[in-house]
Write a structure and sequence with these properties.
The protein is an alpha+beta fold and 145 residues long. It has one domain: SMI1/KNR4-like (3-Layer(aba) Sandwich), CATH 3.40.1580.10. 27% of the residues lie in helices and 21% in strands. It starts with a strand and ends in a 5-residue tail after the last helix.
């Protein structure tokens, strides 16, 4: 089942995504993620629960996917990327794409297979593998049991 989204951001054009790609210096985003941004520009998913196999206390929620040009800067990829890079400068290969209700970040790797990893808040030196790519991440969202 594909998730549905509420709290969508304003409609985006491909030029806005290309502008972010240039300004961030991260290169081209994976096509599946670019299509997602064009369709939703972030938002709150239903279902919103995801398993993080190596995370104590898993599952967690996906409270919000970040977007571009959203009214609240803390809901944007650029704002979260700046905060993420300030705390984890060695993670130059990843961008934050979503957060859980406790402030943990889901990040998309931009090189290799484009895996999604979870970073716990306040724990700087470890991350948890979540899915092989963005599409698998969306498909793994489920209802709380």
């Amino acid at each position: 089942m594909s998730p549905t989204f509420t709290r969508l951001g304003p409609a985006l054009r491909t030029e806005a995504i290309a502008s972010f790609e240039r300004s961030s210096g991260k290169g081209r985003l994976p096509d599946s993620y670019r299509h997602f941004l064009l369709r939703t520009n972030g938002g709150a998913p239903t279902p919103d629960v995801i398993d993080v196999p190596t995370l104590r206390g898993s599952p967690t929620d996906v409270a919000l996917f970040f977007g571009l040009n959203r009214l609240d800067p803390s809901e944007t990829i650029p704002w979260n990327l700046a905060v993420f890079q300030a705390g984890r400068p060695e993670e130059e290969n990843a961008i934050p794409i979503a957060r859980d209700g406790g402030g943990g970040l889901f990040c998309l790797e931009l090189r290799g297979h484009h895996a999604v990893r979870y970073f716990e808040p306040f724990i700087l030196d470890e991350s948890h593998y979540v899915s092989a790519d963005f599409e698998a991440f969306l498909c793994a969202l489920r209802m709380f049991e």
